[in-house]
Amino acid sequence: MTSVSFAPLLPWAVIGVFSAFAALLTAIAFRKHATGAGWRGAALAITIGALANPTLNTENRDLLTDVVAVVVDRSPSQRIGTRRERTDQTLRVVRERLQRLSNVEVRMIDAGTTGVGSSGQADAIGAAPEGTRLFSALDLALADIPVDRIAGAVFITDGQVHDAPHDPTRTPRVGNLKPLHVLLTGERGESDRRLVVAEAPSYGMVNSELQLTLRVEDAGGSERPGTAQVTLRRDGGREEIHTLEVGKDQRVPFKLDHGGQTIIEIEVADAGGELTQRNNRAALTVNGVRERLRVLLVSGEPHAGERTWRNLLKADPSVDLVHFTILRPPEKQDGTPVRELSLIAFPIRELFETKLTDFDLIIFDRYRRRGVLPQSYFVNIVRYITEGGALLGAVGPAFATPLSVYQTPLKAVMPGRPTGEVIEQGFRPMLTTLGERHPVTADLAGTAAEAPEWGRWFRMIDAVVESGTTVMQGVNNRPLLQLDRIGDGRVALLLSDHAWLWARGAEGGGPQAELLRRLAHWLMKEPDLEEEDLKLSTRGNRLDITRRSLGASPEQVTVGTPSDDRLPVKLEDQGGGRAIGSATVSETGLYTVSDGDLEAVTVVGALNAQEYADVRTSPDTLMPVVQATSGGIYWIAEDGVPNMRLVRPGRDTSGSDWLGLIANRSYIVTGVEQTSLFPALAVLLLALGALMMAWHREGR
């Protein structure tokens, strides 16, 4: 480009005054018809032009490329049906056609992934709980490009974009796209069903009715059923089926049957013809809280360890303890008038018949048959256990006699059968092989050494193992602590009444409080103390897996992703019955982990992931932006990939079968050549020539 500029040798004010004076003299000369006035005026004009010093500037320019951003949606919804294949095919065609355009630089951005895109050109923002964020990825890719170099942008997507501006006219970045074109990868008329958890409690009282608020949404399709079946499953247990009306928020009741975490899986039945069933399922964690833990402690004859049980249970503020010690059985006759007795009558009917199921745990501490409890009440206790109750028997020497509780209907639930022998000698309680892996006794303080530094006990009752698991042993490896499951309930049998010695610190004591605490919580089905368990937890993009087992831990588990991929994950044995592993998660949704025997589920990301709120292909979200930038929307499945061309600014940028990109023709100046229009020698010759002509005219 060529232009003229001035570099005056004197200030413009001086030149202006000189020019005015010269013009005045020339005008006077012409008025008086002076000879050579014209040549004198020419000489003055040449001199003034030389003082203004006009320069001819010629710029050397390099043309800059126009930048086109192609944003490829790689979010999970793009993996539905044939969208992924259609996206890849469209991307190849777009790349080929853009390469044919002259002076165009193409930037490919993969959005919806969690790192650098496959093209390596720019980072993309993933499909996190915020959903698919194509505009954020576009901003990141074009952050270093001046506005006057942007030729436009092309989105290859299903239209489900969650960071589109609500009002494009008030969003400065939208005007910089000039234009935005959208290539839709899905098909018209798609339909899908979605399960929405509208409300869910994060915690609740055990055995109290809680409620979930669920909604089933049917999007698209001509005819949909008015109801849908929804299945609830707690901790992988029995299924509960509910019928809900489609499109309405409805409450679904459920109960927690234990403290700690409960995993609730929810699934709605397939409506037929759906795009995906990933949004038909949901899972959530509800923490169970026991309002008051009701424990019935029934003690037999007073002994040194009785206060240990009472102190342990009373120390826990969440425990509501009912403690009865039978001091005066019916057969005792000493002549004392009844009206003078200050003892409280034992309310056996109220406790063992009408209110038995109100208790979470029953403890018989050195109890023996004394004619207080009839056989029918023991039958009630057996029924209570099989229906989900818990019984702890801490037995003493009476267990080996005919007055033993084993000689009652409780025999059916006892894991050990007494031989009639009471062993009275010092011994150190030890863990069995299974005890080293069982969560009740594993990792107890002092078990790291081969011989734990625990204080000795001096009495145990010999018994033969009938059922259950022996986790501690005493003299000659005989069973000391047995655990068993009876129906829906649990039973523990401690074959010694000397656990109190640990509480008193005899010979260094032992982990009596921790052992009994774990024992009570295992009896009440706390999930953290399950023998066979598979637990999942998430930290960022990492899924941690913990497998607990009494047997050999599996070497690996299979992780099922929301995309229905199956990933093997190796587990490392940590000892104590635990094996751990981890996997990297890259998408939001429901993950399942299975080792062949157990299966666990967890949700990564938001409960109602925005990515799956509506998986149908739709232009509605992007339409305002496309219209504001004079772009176009194209259905690839119907019309194929449109042709591409460069257009001048201000011209149409879209048609039925073509899309236009702006040819900005931006440039940078690499150099400037300056040429003076009044060279010094030429000025001198012209001025002298004019003066000589004026002198010549005057001479004539």
Task: Describe the protein in words.
There is one protein chain. The protein is an alpha/beta fold and 700 residues long. 20% of the residues lie in helices and 33% in strands. It has 13 helices and 36 strands. The strands form nine sheets. Strands 16-15-17-18-24-23-22-20 form an eight-stranded mixed sheet. It has a five-stranded parallel sheet with strand order 4-3-5-6-33. Helix 1 runs antiparallel to helix 2. It is elongated, with a radius of gyration of 45 Å. About 2% of the residues have low confidence.
CATH class of the largest domain: Alpha Beta
- Mind summarizing the main beta sheet? 8 strands, mixed
Q: Write down the overall mean pLDDT.
A: 84
Fill in the CATH topology of the largest domain: Rossmann fold
Percent of residues in helices comes to: 10-25%
Task: Catalogue the unreliable spans.
Answer: 114-129
- Distinct helical segment count: 13
| Oligomer kind | single chain
CATH superfamily annotation of the largest domain = Class I glutamine amidotransferase (GATase) domain
Q: Compute the number of strand runs.
A: 36
Q: How many distinct folded domains?
A: 5
| Approximate strand percentage | 25-35%
Tell me the CATH architecture of the largest domain.
3-Layer(aba) Sandwich
Structural class: alpha/beta
- Radius of gyration, in Å, reads 45 Å
What is the approximate shape? Answer: elongated
Q: How far is it from the N-terminal to the C-terminal residue, by CA?
A: 49 Å
Strands ordered across the widest β-sheet: 16-15-17-18-24-23-22-20
